[in-house]
Structures are given as C-alpha cells and as structure tokens.
Amino acid sequence: MRYILGYDGIFTFEASLMFGAIISATDPVAVVALLKELGASKKLATMIEGESLFNDGTAMVIFLIMLKIVEGEELGFGAMVAMFARLSFLGPLLGLFFGVLVETILHRIHNNYVLEVNLTIVAAYMCWFVAENTAVHVSGILAIVALGLYMSHSGKTGISAESMHALHHVWGYVGFCAETIIFMLAGIIIGVESHRPDREIEDSKDYPKILLNYLMAHVIRFSVIFLFWPILNRLGYGMSF
C-alpha cells in the first residue's frame, strides 16, 4: 500500500500492517457453496470453515494490537507479545469453560428441544459477551471457535437424538441470517463512508488503486501458498502445482 500504490503521509507502516490484518481474514462462504455443488465430502467443507474461523480469530487479534499502535498507544515488543498471548490463549480457555458448562446442563435435560436449542444459542452469545466485555478482554472469536469445537467433539453427546434435527435446522438458519446481514451491513457502511466529503477519496486516483490493490491481494496470497507448496504437497491429500 505504501511503496507500490504510493500511499504515504498519514498511511504509516503501522497502518499498513493493520490493513494487512484486515484483508488477511478469509471468507469460506463461496468455497463451501461450491463444494456442496460438486458433491465434495462434508468433512472437507467443515475443515475449510474451521480453518477460516481460526484465521479470522488470529487476524482480529493482530488487528486489535495494530489498532492500539495506530491510535498512538506505545506498545513495546514484550507488551505486544503479552497482549497477543492473552487474546489468543485465554479466549479458547473461556470457550472450553462454556463448553463444559453447557455439556453439564444438557445432560440434565432430556427430550426438550426448545430448552436444548435455546441453551446452545444463549451459551454462544454469553461466551462472546463475557470474552469481549470483561476487564480481562480476550478474543471473542477464538472463544466461540473453541466452544464450537468442544460441542462438536464431546458436548453434543448431551443433546437428545430427537433434538439434534431441530438443532441443526435452527443453527443453519441463524448462520444464514448472520452471513446475509454481515454482507449487507458491510456494503452499506462502505458505500456511505466512501462518499463522505471528509474522506478525501479522489475518483481519478484512488479507485484505480483499489482495483490494483485487489489484484495485489491475489498475487500476495498466491505467493504465500507457493512458498509453502513443498510442505503442502506432502500433507493430507497433497497439493499439485
């Protein structure tokens, strides 16, 4: 952004790193939809979704650290490492705690799909709220990921067989609504913010650079995958060039 597109001045190196954290988060919606059309295994789609969630959580942690620096807060190397560790490791621990708590309560409920579905929804949002709004302040995304992994591994044993069908339908609908709302809000907010007079966006200069930045993101991602290609070629199914 600074050296290729020429954004100097207020676009500092720290701001460049913050921008990198933002665009490093991947969204698997289109990929998962394509896998379903191709009839790929559900396990593969789940792995891609899980990887994306971990990626988003880590990117969010780096974004929060860089945001503090961009806003003028002085953080030494030790303080940055401590903040990253607090957000990254305490978040999953909180999610595991909520997972154990939910599993314990589920074992005391039998064949009541209303209570079981509501419990999982309340637990997810309470886990996020506690993670993001307490004095400790850990990563809510990673806490939710850990909660979901625990529930899919052992926590689901507490869910009645009769309630599992309803649980999948409710959470599938919640996920669909959440993704739709997120994309709508993102489009509206970006559209409104980009046309504010104090944003100083120059059509003749900035919009071509946005297109070039889009192309650069693909080149960068390809370069990273190519860098790790020898390792990826020997893992799992293997990846040809």
Write structural notes for this entry.
By secondary structure, this protein is mainly alpha-helical. It has three domains: 1-75; 88-192; 202-241, no CATH class. It is 73% helix and 0% strand. The chain contains nine helices and no strands. It is globular and about 65 Å long. The protein starts with 12 loop residues before the first helix and ends in a 9-residue tail after the last helix. 15% of the residues are buried.
* Helix run count: 9
Question: How is the main sheet built?
Answer: none
The fraction of residues assigned to DSSP E strands is under 5%
What's the overall average pLDDT, rounded?
84
List keywords for this structure.
9 helices, globular
Summarize, please:
The chain has 9 helices and no strands. By secondary structure, the protein is an all-alpha fold.
